[in-house]
Amino acid sequence: MTRHVFSFPRYLGVGLFGLMIGQACLQAQAQTMPIDSSSSSALPPGIERSAFGQLANGREVDCYRITNDNGIEMRVINYGGIIVSLKTPDLQGQMDDIVLGFDSLDDYLSDAYRRANPYFGALIGRYGNRIANGRFSLDGETYQLPTNDGPNTLHGGDVGFNQRLWHAEPFSSSEGRGLVLTYTSEDGEEGFPGRLSARVSYTLTNDNELAIDYRAKTSRATPVNLTQHSYFNLQGEGHGSILNHELTINASGFTPVNETLIPTGEIADVSGTPFDFRRPTAIGARMGEKNTQLAYGKGYDHNFVLSKNPGAAGHLALAARVTEPQSGRVLEVSTTEPGLQFYSGNFLDGSLTGKSGRAYTHRSGLALETQHFPDSPNQSNFPSTILKPDETYHSRTVYRFSTTQSEGQSRSTQPHSS
Ligand code: GLA
Predict the structure, then answer these.
(1) 13 pLDDT exceeds 90?
(2) Does residue 118 form part of some domain?
(3) Residue 367 in contact with ligand 1 by CB distance below 6 A
(4) The domain that contains 163 carries what CATH number?
(5) Model confidence band, residue 8 (pLDDT cutoffs 50, 70, 90)
(6) Are 256 and 263 spatial neighbours (Cβ–Cβ below 8 Å)?
(7) Can you tell me the mean pLDDT for 325-352?
(8) Integer-rounded Cα radius of gyration of the chain
(9) pLDDT of amino acid 312
């Protein structure tokens, strides 16, 4: 976890400001309106807001459409910070929506969706991935979290950050256009200690990147592991499986798991296994191999230990690259995080129908979740996920969209210090 000096009073200010603005947003009826009623400033150019629906408690959910100068367009809702759509060009310049999701809030709230629990496009917290038996000890106390994935806690518990209404503030900066999302998780929420103020920004740049900065402060020591759970299909959402996508992961190790997907504690060498993605390999190429780890995951659902340059902790490094041969779309993921969960959509079973009316069938999307390792609070040999009150959590991940043609011409992902 990288921690940068960060002015807490200013942060608190944003939180309080957020609460006030949240009230203003609740009264919003118009499709597009000034976001900041206190200063009457209009939405920045390239950002539009519309109503997306209403939660059971009556609170309104907004949808922000953000475009960059090259026509890349993403839509984000403040419920769960969910990226509901993301349109990028293929080799011919045709724009397609490359993430799985829905066009209506009801679809994200439906029983079918809750049963499937795929976390489409959502922000994940407080703790992305699993904590064994939903239990950990910290500073002499044992904490029991709700278990929602067999015996374990997955993605923050019963009501994780993916199901919270965030305060959203659109912005335009020299880096790009985006949205700052803030949410305060009260002390004891979902069993976690400490009042955690989380602030996540999505920035869509004119270099065709989506940069995500995760920040948090806590009032008491607590585990934090924030991530984003978009499912990509570079052929376009609803267009079949991702098995033909070619994946490179910059990792020579991974963390093998037990039957309930909790790491054994070992960091295994990927050499000679279906987990060796150091060279571009079709995702489906080795999926059928007889392999205990693939059997436990029902495919790929594993944390990769990213290879970084020595001393590069806290700096962006290229973690993964995905290429889809037909469309020519390329996705690159860079992160400051030490791990990457590659999940091949093994639990998708066709029971959910997406935006364009097509069913999300088995392995029709892949997730690349940048993170600290699963179950770190119980694994002393893994990098720590404990955030202390005098520290600021900051992690950055950049998704970069290009095509096999444009790739050579444009700049490569640059390390970015913040
Ligand atoms: C993560 C987990 C998977 C699965 C998905 C959501 O990627 O590792 O096992 O739970 O979330 O379906």
Answers:
(1) no
(2) yes
(3) yes
(4) 2.70.98.10
(5) very low
(6) yes
(7) 97
(8) 20
(9) 58
Lowest mean pLDDT among 13-22, 103-112, 269-278: 13-22
| 356 alpha-carbon distance from chain centroid | 22
SS3 297: helix
State yes or no: pLDDT of 285 exceeds 70. yes
Buried b (16+ CB within 10 A) or exposed e, 185-224: beeebbbbbbbbbbbbbbbbbebbbbbbbbbbbbeebbbb
Catalytic residue among 60, 169, 246, 369: 369
Residue 296 Cβ < 6 Å to ligand 1:
no
For ligand 1, atom 12, which residue shows the shortest CA distance?
A: 118
Q: What contacts 67, CB < 8 A, 6 or more positions away? A: 46, 47, 73, 177, 204
pTM of the model: 0.89
Handedness of CA 381, 383, 385, 389 (dihedral sign): positive
CA-wise closest residue to 80 among 201, 196, 158, 164: 164
CA distance 354 to 89: 20
What total number of domains does the chain contain? 1
State the distance from the centre of ligand 1 to the C-alpha of 232, rounded, in angstroms: 14
Average pLDDT value for the chain: 89
Per-residue pLDDT, 243: 98
* Rounded-to-integer distance, Cα 224 and Cα 263, Å: 18
Distance CA 371, CA 127 (A): 9
Domain boundaries, position 86: 37-411
Is residue 161 within 8 Å of 192, Cβ to Cβ?
A: no
Within a domain: 393: yes
The model's pLDDT over 79-117, given as tens digits with 9 standing for 90+, comes to 999 999 999 999 999 999 999 999 999 999 999 999 999
Residue 229 annotated to the active site: yes
List, in order, residues 6 or more apart from 284 with CB less than 8 Å away.
Answer: 241, 243, 244
Separation of CA 405 and ligand 1 centre (Å): 32
Residue 365 lies in a domain: yes
